[in-house]
Structure formats: C-alpha cells, structure tokens
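Dig into this one:

. . .
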Amino acid sequence: MPLVRIDHSDARTNPREIADAVHRAIVDTYGIPERDRFQVLAARPAEAIIAQDAGLGFERQDPVIIQIFTQRGRDVAQKQALYAEIAAALEPVGVAGSDVFIGYVENGPEDWSFGFGTAQYVTGELGVPRTD
C-alpha cells in the first residue's frame, strides 16, 4: 500500500495523467491491487521546485518529484525495476526521464492508519501486504 506524493510545476497541464502513469507502474511492478491507490498531487510554481542533477551532468527542464512511502521488504532489484517502469510510463505523458526524481521511503505495518485513529495492520482489520 504505497502512499505517493507527486509534486510538479503548475506549467504541467496533465497531472492526472502523470498520477495514473505512476500508479499503473506501481500496480504492474509490485502487483498491488488496482484500488490500493493513495496519491497526493501538488502543483507548484516552477521556481518553487529546485532539483539539480546531483553531479550526473544533465539539466532538468520541468522536474516531477515523486515520493513513495511503502512497506519495507522489497529488494534492490524490485526497487530498480519500479524506478525504470515509472520513468518509462511517464515518457508518453510528456515527462522526460531526466525530469523524474523519485524518493523511496520504507516503513512497517505499525506506521499506517487508514482512518478512525487505528493502525489497521496492527489490529488485524487489514492483512499486511506481502512485499515479495
């Protein structure tokens, strides 16, 4: 059950297409249920997004910052596959690979509440998703 934050410039006119592409990549790569979708989209003035190349030698034109919060347990190969799938899925909706920035944060079942002030994975109301 990932929670995904997508920050983009307000110059982008297709935030829902971007969100749909990211979700499709996660569903296809991790095999999560289609309706296991939690995304927050935020348009910001272009000057409010600073994303340089970290010394890799390329320029970003209109960065899309993606933060993925999800259960721990996936290996490096699974994460690498997800990053590649997200970049590939975003290209057809106008996001260049050089403009894709992904931050990936892992946590455990005790770190999620789906409502009512309860950690449903801990109480057993929801089964803890498999990550393998």
